[in-house]
Design brief:
The complex is a heterotrimer of chains A (314), B (396) and C (511).
Chain A (H helix, E strand, L loop, with lengths): L1 H7 L2 H26 L7 H19 L2 H25 L4 H24 L15 E2 L10 H5 L2 E2 H19 L1 H11 L1 H6 L4 H25 L13 H11 L4 H22 L5 H38 L1
Antiparallel strand pairs in A: 1-2
Helix pairs in contact in A: 2-7, 2-10, 2-11, 2-12, 3-4, 3-5, 3-10, 3-11, 4-5, 4-10, 7-8, 8-10, 11-12, 11-13, 12-13
Chain B lengths: L5 H48 L3 H14 L1 H26 L7 H18 L6 H28 L3 H24 L21 H5 L9 H18 L1 H11 L1 H6 L4 H28 L10 H11 L7 H22 L3 H17 L1 H13 L4 H7 L8 H4 L2
Chain C lengths: L1 E9 L5 E10 L4 E5 L6 H8 L7 E6 L2 E3 L4 H6 L2 E4 L11 H6 L5 E2 L2 E2 L1 H15 L14 H14 L4 E5 L7 H16 L3 E6 L2 H7 L2 E6 L2 E7 L5 H9 L17 E11 L5 E11 L3 E5 L6 H8 L7 E6 L2 E2 L5 H6 L2 E4 L3 H5 L6 H4 L11 E2 L2 E2 L1 H14 L16 H13 L5 E5 L7 H16 L3 E6 L2 H7 L2 E6 L2 E6 L7 H8 L7 H6 L2
Parallel strand pairs in C: 3-10, 3-11, 6-9, 9-10, 15-22, 15-23, 18-21, 21-22
Antiparallel strand pairs in C: 1-2, 1-4, 4-5, 7-8, 11-12, 13-14, 13-16, 16-17, 19-20, 23-24
Helix pairs in contact in C: 14-15
Classes of the chains: A mainly alpha (314), B mainly alpha (396), C alpha/beta (511).
Chain lengths: 314, 396, 511
């Protein structure tokens, strides 16, 4: 038990949480925008995977991490456009299109990696790059805090800054509030001249962009290779974070960090012979429990309103 | 109007009916052609991808398309793989008919495999019962596990896509945990359970026909029973009627006195029980033990099977066989061209995209209706997309 | 200011909603557009607002011909419309809703303060009281409507079309709305007021245009008109003729509702102690402006909602809080208000639609297994008996015409041989022929000894059919007239609008 506590309260552990949360926070924010825009993005997983793969390959061949990033983002955006086209223009069900894109991404990435390297499992034969880490002056010299806050990958900082920006976008900008209006009452939005389809495309594109950053962090953040299906369900966990976070940017951030913490814990506890599966289960159990709790509380509230009336009338 | 005799009226009606029958036959023919067309397009795209590999693409693609029939043991693999896929496809089709997006087949399959294996390992059972008891236990477990997202959807209006995905993940972790920590015999370097007792193994077709049919086994009998049972359930029982009416219009079902919540919950649960049979087949038939990654994403593959079959239980075996043919073909292709499974994934994705969009069907119909005389409305309505509506999932 | 000349609108399904309608609006007036349900007034206004396009005819704005293809073009021309169902985003504030689509910005960011200021300024200017920073979801209906009006004004509307604006309002809110309309006109706006409530029209308008059957009957100055004269123009015959029906042969009390209370999910009390009886062999009409609790009353009676208080007895058995199925099995049939959305499943076959209330009973089901033969036979019988124009019962209901879909509902509900038949807004969205059919069916049921509960917002309809008439207002029964014959609209209307109510004793006497 003591060793568990030691793990939890170590600076390394907190730093690990920030690291493993990054590829959850970014896609979760993307999932949030899409969800609020009324176009739930199941394809986060596939978009991350595609970006992770493209980033590694392009950075390996161009020796520019930035071109790698760009390529990843572009491909994820193309997927977002496909998702939008099938759902918004061809009226296909967005969940099924999303699932199809995930399958496509899983197959296509393995295929492309094999074509280029002759290896189906990973891109380890290629020399790909990493996104830079950032040392924050002054803070990096503070003991403990410096260890946690400084020296993280650039995308980790981006993730936290993105949370603020997403909040700003959704609540304080014109396109943001239009996206939310379109998600909540498309007819109302349409009636005041908002282009519902365009706003939903915008939501999907932003969603794809954030998912791509998350994917890039996976393959070009802490490690520098691509592995088949390396997202390992993070796109779905991100989706869960949106729901657990009550569809609010800050809530989503917190939920994603909690999921990241559970993940980090399972990595750390692995050394202590505590079964990692049980720890890894926690985020999912929490999400299901919170879904139930949320619904039950809402039901209770409605019932309470009715009861309150009954008592008043007696 | 008034002096039209009863005879001509009924004659008119007979003529009209004949016309409608003909119309309907043509309509289903078009469905079939469009489905086949979809498959052809998907295969073509797969072929273009294969061309990109460069190394003898035609040989590679031939392996994909004819491989499963080229050797008896491959035929066995095909039968074995199709057995699971058909069961999963059936499972998915049930909730889909109620327009519920139940993605929980994967979880139910794992629970089914786990339960069946544990019962077989720890409960000494005579022959026959050695299969029947684990099977029933697994179905019960699959039923109960699927009851959770069903209950959450029906009574709490919680988004079933999220809940079933989460529950799948929980089960996958639990499965691994139990397998690694409790079921792997000491000293075994591979993380897998002990072999199940012979009384709990499905007899292999290889032994029956004295041919090298791989691990294909008598569970195909279960598939036949399941197909018929699900068909009867969905088309010939009150429960099936309830499910279909909920799928057609949930408000209408409620108004008509159907207990929509109960039926929705049960549609998840029954799907869970059917998916669990797939797990039983894997544990008792194919592997004779539990292994890591026993399901390998089969839950999602079942969606393609159900969609291709338009949720019709009688068509699920056909689409299941077809889809599994591609999977096995992909494996064989892999050995010839080093690329295989990925192409099957690409083909799968294309099929889903084309079917969901429905634009091909509508395009064909629209063309025909402008030239012909039939009412476009009939056609459009009769072929409303057989997947859950967006509306049904919007609220959480 | 605006002139619509020879407007004709034919829908793709052949319905002629407007036939060469000409309509003129003067600047600064309150112009009422009246007509029965389905007279074509909404279609005409939708054409003016760019939602629908005319098949023929021309619109002139300030003398110049204009083409209005979309509502945005209408808004650009200074025409705004407030629909009955509000177009608001519930989780946004009132100010956010008012400025939505045209938000004031400060650099790249929204200027919420400016939005609030703009909203409160507009609100002050036109006397439309709202709380700009309140969340729409939490404010009452009257305020939501003011938000809609503010939205139109914010977009620079000079002409405001209000589509039956009082339908969802309490009398108090209606008075406030009228005050606001007068204020609007004082500041130079023009208001078109769609209604079928003559009392309100007389009170608020300067001129009245009357439509009937898709045609313009005429336009008169309100001061030269009376409610009766308008009513004559609207219906073209004496108002409220009762159907010729056999004398009442009233039997036992089939339904006894007592003190029904219902609070909706939002916590608003919708039913406040509703009590009445329905007797065998009698049509009890419940008149009332829509949204006064009728929908909830029907759903509580049919088991689709659970009452918060009170009891419902059917014959001798208590059916309070029973499920919809139990209520149906106890002998209640229900022709629902929104038949095309709730009464049928469009993609299911006619046969399947006809058994939704009985599929689990023999001969349709034995031991849980369905009998296709019984279903098909039932379908054939019903198609024959109720003259549903369908060549085959296996066709999806969605392939039928609107009137025949209605017949499917009626056939199913009447063939259930109910003790109590609840018909909610039975002729809404129905053409004249089908209305006649529906009415005859209700009368026949009543004559056969069924207790018929008729809920309708169409006063002419309830008056024509009812033997006994109750009036609902604000979740209460405010009056019961033991004999519906000879009642005038004025009498009933006063109760409907909540101006008058009978004493409890008077009501109880006629339960």
């Amino acid at each position: 038990m003591e060793s568990v506590l030691q793990v939890i309260f170590s600076a390394v552990f907190v730093s690990t949480i920030l690291r493993v949360s990054t590829p959850l926070i970014l896609p979760a924010l993307g999932g949030l925008i899409a969800e609020l825009g009324g176009v739930p993005n199941i394809a986060l997983e596939g978009m991350m995977l595609t970006a992770a793969c493209a980033g590694v390959l392009v950075s390996a061949y161009t020796q520019s991490e930035w071109l790698g990033l760009l390529a990843g983002v572009l491909l994820a955006e193309i997927m977002a456009l496909i998702l939008g086209f099938f759902h918004l223009n061809l009226k296909a069900d967005i969940i099924l299109v999303g699932l199809a894109l995930n399958i496509l991404a899983s197959g296509a990435t393995i295929f492309v990696v094999y074509l280029l390297t002759g290896d189906k499992g990973s891109s380890s034969k290629l020399v790909s790059l990493q996104m830079p880490t950032v040392d924050i002056p002054f803070i990096k010299d503070i003991p403990v805090l410096g260890e946690i806050l400084s020296g993280q990958n650039l995308l980790t900082y981006v993730a936290f800054i993105a949370t603020g920006l997403v909040w700003l976008f959704l609540y304080r900008t014109r396109p943001g509030i239009h996206v939310r209006a379109v998600g909540e009452n498309p007819d109302a939005a349409r009636s005041v001249g908002i282009n519902v389809t365009a706003m939903r495309y915008l939501a999907l594109l932003m969603s794809g962009f954030l998912a791509a950053l998350g994917g890039i962090h996976l393959s070009m953040g802490y490690v520098k290779f691509f592995q088949r299906d390396m997202t390992a369900g993070r796109g779905f966990i991100a989706l869960a974070a949106v729901y657990l976070g009550a569809k609010h940017p800050v809530g989503t951030l917190i939920a994603a960090v909690v999921f990241g913490a559970a993940d980090a814990l399972s990595i750390q506890l692995g050394n202590l012979k505590i079964p990692s599966q049980l720890v890894q289960m926690i985020p999912y159990v929490v999400t299901v429990a919170s879904l139930i709790l949320y619904a039950v509380v809402r039901k209770r509230q409605a019932a309470a309103r009715q009861r309150k009336f009954q008592q008043a009338s007696l | 109007m008034v002096d039209t005799s009863a005879i001509t009226l009924s004659e008119n009606r007979a003529v009209e009916r004949a016309r409608i029958r003909k119309e309907r036959v043509r309509s289903s023919l078009i469905d079939l052609i469009v489905t086949l067309g979809t498959i052809m397009i998907a295969l073509l795209i797969g072929f273009i991808v294969t061309l990109a590999v460069g190394k003898e693409p035609i040989k590679a693609y031939t392996a994909l398309l004819t491989g499963p029939l080229s050797q008896v043991n491959r035929l066995g693999n095909w039968i074995q793989d199709a057995t699971t896929l058909i069961l999963i496809g059936l499972s998915v089709s049930i909730a889909f008919q109620a327009r519920q997006f139940n993605l929980g087949a994967e979880g139910s399959l794992l629970v089914g495999a786990l339960t069946a294996a544990v019962v077989a390992l720890y409960v000494p059972l005579p022959p026959v019962l050695g299969i029947v008891v684990p099977l029933l236990a697994a179905m019960t477990a699959g039923f109960l596990v699927a009851l959770i997202p069903g209950w959450m959807k029906a009574y709490l209006n919680a988004n079933e896509v999220v809940s079933t995905l989460m529950i799948n993940a929980i089960i996958a972790n639990l499965y691994q945990y139990l397998l690694i920590n409790f079921l792997t015999p000491e000293g075994d370097n591979v993380r897998r359970s002990a072999l199940l007792p012979a009384t709990s193994a499905f007899p292999l077709l290889a032994d029956i026909f004295n041919a090298n049919l791989g691990r294909a086994n008598l569970a195909i009998v279960l598939v036949l029973i399941a197909v018929i049972a699900v068909w009867v359930l969905m088309r010939r029982t009150s429960f099936g009627y309830e499910v279909r009416m909920i799928g057609a219009n949930e408000k209408f079902a409620r108004y008509g006195g159907i207990n929509t919540r109960r039926v929705i919950m049960l549609s998840f649960a029954i799907g869970g029980a059917v998916a669990a049979i797939g797990g039983v087949h894997l544990a008792l038939g194919v592997h004779n033990r539990l292994i890591l990654g026993i399901s390998a994403g089969l839950g999602f593959e079942g969606i393609v099977v159900a969609m291709l079959a338009r949720n019709n239980p009688l068509l699920v075996p056909i689409t299941g066989l077809f889809y599994s043919y591609l999977r096995i073909g992909g494996d064989i292709m892999e050995r010839t061209a080093s690329v295989g499974a990925e192409i099957v994934q690409v083909i799968q994705a294309v099929i889903i995209l084309l079917i969901t969009a429905q634009f091909v069907i509508e395009f064909v119909r629209a063309r025909r209706n402008t030239s012909g005389t039939s009412s476009s409305r009939t056609a459009a309505v009769s072929d409303a997309t057989a997947v859950p509506s967006e509306q049904s999932r919007r609220n959480i | 200011m605006i002139e619509m000349r020879d407007i004709t609108k034919v829908y793709p399904n052949g319905v002629r909603a407007n036939r060469e309608v000409s309509f003129e609006i003067k600047a600064g007036e309150i112009h009422a557009l009246v007509g029965e349900n389905g007279a074509g007034k909404s279609t005409l206004m939708k054409i003016l607002y760019g939602v629908e396009r005319p098949s023929a005819g021309q619109i002139y704005l300030k003398g110049k011909p204009v083409r209005i293809n979309t509502e945005h073009e209408a808004i650009a021309l200074g025409i705004g419309m407030v629909f009955q169902s509000f177009m608001l985003v519930p989780s946004f504030t009132i100010a956010q809703n008012v400025v939505l689509g045209n938000e004031p910005v400060h650099g790249a960011l929204l200027d919420n303060r400016a939005a609030i200021n703009a909203t409160s300024e507009l609100a002050k200017q036109y006397g439309l009281v709202v709380d700009p920073s309140a969340i729409v979801d939490s404010v009452p209906v009257g305020m939501r409507q003011r938000v809609e009006i503010l939205k139109a004004l914010y977009r620079g509307a000079d002409v405001l079309i209000l589509d039956e604006p009082t339908a969802v309002l309490t009398p108090q809110e209606t008075r406030e709305l009228f005050a606001a309309i007068r204020q609007l006109v004082k500041t130079g706006k023009t208001v078109i007021f769609i209604s079928h409530k003559l009392r309100e029209v007389m009170e608020i308008s300067n001129r009245v245009s009357v439509m009937r059957d898709g045609q313009m009957v005429g336009t008169v100055d309100t001061k030269d008109a009376t409610e009766t004269s308008l009513a004559r123009m609207m219906v073209g015959r004496e108002v409220f003729q009762q159907y010729d029906k056999p004398p009442v042969n009233r039997g036992a009390a089939v339904l006894q509702a007592r003190d029904l209370e219902y609070v909706n999910e939002a916590g608003r009390q919708v039913l406040r102690g509703v009590s009445f009886n329905a007797y065998a062999g009698e049509i009890l009409g419940i008149a009332g402006v829509e949204g006064n609790g009728q929908t909830e009353l029907v759903e509580v009676l049919t088991g689709l909602r659970v009452a918060v208080g009170g009891t419902i007895k059917l014959g001798d058995s208590d059916i309070t809080s029973r499920s919809a199925r139990e209520v149906r099995q106890a002998g209640v049939a229900h022709i629902p208000e929104d038949r095309l959305n709730n009464g049928v499943a469009l993609t299911a076959s006619i046969e399947e639609n006809l058994i939704v209330d009985r599929y689990s009973k023999p001969p349709f089901s034995r031991a849980g297994f369905t009998s296709l033969a019984a279903m098909v036979k039932n379908g054939e019988t019903m198609i024959e008996q109720y003259a549903i124009r369908a060549p085959d019962g296996a066709l999806p209901v969605g392939s039928l015409s609107g009137g025949n879909m209605q017949k499917v509902v009626v056939a199913r509900e009447l063939s259930a041989n109910p003790q109590l038949l609840i018909a909610a807004q039975p002729t809404r969205g129905v053409d004249i022929g089908a209305t006649e059919f529906m009415h005859q069916q209700l009368i026949q049921q009543r004559t056969n000894g069924v207790a018929v509960l008729l809920i309708s917002a169409d006063l002419a309809e309830v008056m024509a059919l009812s033997d006994r008439l109750a009036v609902m207002h604000n979740g209460q029964i405010v009056a019961i007239f033991p004999d519906a014959r000879g009642l005038s609209e004025e009498e009933v209307g006063l109760y409907m609008l909540g101006v008058q109510l009978q004493t409890q004793a008077e009501i109880e006497k006629n339960w």
